[in-house]
Amino acid sequence: MVKTINIAASDLAKLTGDNKYDHVSKIINKLLSSNKIENVYVPKSNLEEKLHSMSEEELAKIREELNIPKTNIYDMMSVIQKKFVYESYDKNITEEESKKKLDGKMTDTMNVLR
User: Fold this and answer.
1) Quick one: what percent of the chain has pLDDT higher than 70?
2) Which range of residues forms the domain containing residue 19?
3) What span, in angstroms and rounded, lies between the C-alpha atoms of 44 and 94?
4) Contact at 8 Å (CB) between 109 and 62?
5) For the residues 59-68, what does the mean pLDDT come to?
6) What global pTM score does this model have?
7) How many CB atoms are closer than 10 A to CB 108?
């Protein structure tokens, strides 16, 4: 039986090394999952990936700083995005201004998310 595998052009560039933005294993997992070849966890964002890789102790420090109860990672992502990220998405500012806004809000504890 022949299986058709769909690959986006940007993912193909990552696989061939023309685009070095993502690690090859991350792209392979994405292809396996999206083509229903294997059930592999693929994080939807860098923030989600970073939070999943953190220890419970690190997550507790972030919860404490954000003043939120013990909650799941997706709820934490929502709070982090609202508190730190959304203001830097303004279409009327430059990328440099966006980075300055984000840097101005980040604390030492929150910088581990970079």
Assistant:
1) 91
2) 1-42
3) 25
4) yes
5) 87
6) 0.71
7) 8
